[in-house]
# Entry
Amino acid sequence: MPHAAAEPAAVVRTDERADEPAVAPVARAVDLHKVYGAGDTRVVALDGVSVDFWPGQFTAIMGPSGSGKSTLMHCLAAMDAATAGSVFVGDADLTRLADKELTRIRRDRIGFVFQAFNLVPTLTALENITLPIDIAGRKPNRPWLDTVIDTVGLRNRLDHKPGQLSGGQQQRVACARALAGRPDIVFADEPTGNLDSVSGAEVLGFLRRSVSQFGQTVVMVTHDPNAAGYADRVLFLADGRIVDEMLEPTADRVLERMKHFDAAPVAKG
Amino acid sequence: MLKVTLKGLLAHKLRLGMSAFAIILGVAFVAGTFVFTDTLNRSFTDLFRQTAPDVTVRPVDAHDSSGGFTGADARTVPADVLSGLADLPGVARVDGNVTDQSTFIVGRDGKVVGSGGGAPGLGLTYHDGPAADGSPIVTITGGRAPAGPNEFLFDDKAAAAAGYAIGDEITLVTTGPEPTVHGTLVGTVRFGETGNTIGATLALMDTATAQRLYLGGQHAYTDIAVTGDGSVSNAQLRDEVTAALPGGLQALDDAQIAAENQSDLAQGLSFITTFLLVFAAVALVVGSFLILNTFSIIVAQRTRELALLRALGASRRQVTRSVLVEALVVGLVGSTVGLALGFALAVGLKALFGAIGLDLSNAGLVFEWRTAAVAYAVGVVITLLAAYLPARRAAQVPPVAALRDDVAMPESSMRRRLVVGTALTAIGAGLMVWSLGFDGGLSLLGLGVFAVFVGVALLAPVIGRPIVSVIASPFPRLFGTVGVLARQNTRRNPRRTSATASALMIGLALVSAMAVLGQSTKASVDQLVSSDLHADYVVSNAIGVPFSTGVADRIAQVPGVDEVVPVRFGMAQVDGQDVFVTAADVPAYSRMVGMTVRDGSLAAGDGVVVAADRADELGWHVGDTVTVTLPAGPQNLPVAAVIEPSELAGRLIIPLDVLERGGQLPTDSTVYVSRLPGADASAVTAGIDASIADLPTITAKDQAAFAAEQRAPVDQILAIVYALLGLAVIIAVLGIVNTLALSVIERTREVGLLRAVGMSRRQLRSMVRLESVAIAVLGAVLGIGLGLVFGVSIQQALSDDGVSVLSIPAGQLAVFVLLSALVGVLAAVWPARRAARMDVLRAITAD
# Structure
């Protein structure tokens, strides 16, 4: 398997950027807390997470089941509200925004790839891809749309309904949908969780290319060390905290690191 | 965004159809009502247009608005007026008419043709004078004009219905001194252009015959038709004619006659329109529950998709709008189909009214643009309103729901519902109690009933829960595990269960209220007859119109008959208001019908007898001299007695001769007969029957038969009301089918699981069926409970207007509950089959 992280990235890397404070992070969590329930059923999902996501960087978030990795992503993607702390997308503090502004941020600045694809079954592949743009009431940027479609290799499947596509094809449609609106940041929630290894590799390769070729910022939750190997950087979460960070990961190193967690990573968190 | 909604809608045609159905039925009823009443209106307008000549001359204020139930005006236009008018400049011709409204044709089979629906049997003079539009009023289609005594022409339809051919000997019944008239049919005519008489029959004769039959042989006319030569307008002609008329007569042009008829017609039709629209409203209210329910379920099913749209950046408003767009499409489709179905319904109504004598078979359906506008407005607005709450709730779906496997709609708190529901119920109940405190509170009562309806519907999830628990409590014992599951299912979504039951509740509440009211009315009639009717026989005309005084004379000759007391009805004006008056020989009348004297005396029989409530209204006291204005002029009479209000006796009773002096032709409305003490009842009955055997419309009823006859209209009205409310119940049943089918789909995974762990199809079916029965019975219990409250309240409100006895048809109400359970079983057939047919593997892997 070609190691994606080995390719030279088109943009500057995190370690180099430390000396260039002029470049701002695309998304940022500051001392983020998320608590579900109350009393006996109180569950602390996030317990003071602070993290920056830099432009053109592919970040994987890993951790055992229940470590809070999905919750972190939902809070970052303006889909769930934090209990305390701040989430910034660009310079907007999501925790201070009303539903209307959050909606606009989801629509204009965030792309999302779901584990279960979540395509609208009654729309064709192309209609699904342009759905966020349609919702925003805008016209798609045609050359960019063509680029995205060609990159995911779906040109001859555009008129198909999701039911007529394989799982890998559906997820590629979902990726194209996330990218079509040129969002600041794309979040992918276990994008390969429902796919076989070949289809999974195609999807990961596509995400990798979007970072390398188009400078897209991507954040991906996964429990698969191989998937994490495509990223530029891996964050390890446990019990709602960031416990480790690995730059230029390889699948082997990630696997090695995962072994140090007490709980075996059995399912998504 | 719109594309998502529309494509989703097209992909779920079943869903669309189900939710559109309620709207279709409701709109069909509204559209059908309009089409039918427009058709009726057009038919009558045509009829009037085809009868009114350029100018009509008649006695002042001879216009009769009583609908033919009182005796006819005795005033006439003298014959010499006719010849005087013929010489006026601008007059082409004058034709004298003698018209009678109750001359009925007796067919070959001895039965009266076309009676029963209240359409008049017209007896009139034949002439070939034209209507104002120049077309002949009647055209001879066979035979010849009448040329001698007792030669008649019938309209084509009546002749055919009676089975008569030209040259046959025919029989008529009239109100004149000759109750039966025999003659020869010499020809047939077509009325107007189309021959559409709306159920009336026509018997035409020469002037001398008509004058003999209806005017006691005097050479006069009931009115005169003046036709201009075209040199002046009808209004000018009218003014010229007016100038030439002696006192006591008036001239009216065709426009005035049309306006007069139109206002009568509007009154008559507004009753039918209101009646039908009330049922349309019921259907729509019930339908809106169904729509609300369907959309709630649709939103629940679409939760994941809606959450996805939210995650992709759709705003709350866009999500709400997408549900409302779906509602809009459903509303438009439903209204369109409903409009088409409305035409079918109008055809049905035409047939229904045709069956009771209002023959419209020659009239084409009338379609006004207003009908379409109202149909669309009603259909779309109701659908949007009903879908608004689910649409609002759809917007509450959190975007993160797109990431979860099992998604539940956020349930809003019941508290607001509880507060609003309780408040509305309390206000409604208060209004109902308050309205019973005074007369004429029926509209307030209606408002109260409506508030209670909405209030209870809102409270239904709360009050329904314990009721459902009770209904479902025997399930586990009777059906084992299936019963346990079914019981849990009914409790699972109390909001949905109760919304479904509410639809049935409304229909059954109305049906039960009508049942209570109907039963009470019948019991009241029985009580009235047994306590107040002292006569042994009541003689009346089957079609409600007055009959010849010859009938009373004949009965008086029957051996064993003691007293024969004729009673006449008329319209009079008192204090400027139209009132119904009863005329009779008061002392004799009081021996036939119970009267309790509060003040004064009935013995003299030369004054007015007035019911206490009417006396209070008018400020009349015994000894006062009061003025009762009859057609021929005001009559001054002393008030002889004030009696307790009695439905049977009448509110205002005047001596017979006063009515006759007042210008009403002597015809009887009812004749009361008593037997000599000791006379053989069956022999007297047979004797009376024999004396009137040749008058098929006249019947003599003993007390039991009279009571039965009085009860019959109640049953008829109840039958119509039940049929119309049946529509509401059908919609409610569809609601149950819809809810069950959709909740089965919603529970696909669970159903698959149950099947996977070994539940048989049969068990699955009975689980769904039990759930359905519980919902239906809940609706029945709530509905019948409310119906009892409403029925009793209305009875109380009407206790002074003849419904004095409260009688609850317990057996009938129990049958309603049983029928509802049956309805539950039927409603479950299709959803249960659907659930049972689900593929186990697909069911557990469905998303």
In short: DSSP finds 24 helices and 26 strands in chain B. Chain B has four domains: 1-55+254-412, 56-253, 466-533+702-847, 544-696. The mean pLDDT of chain B is 83. The longest helix of chain B spans residues 254-301.
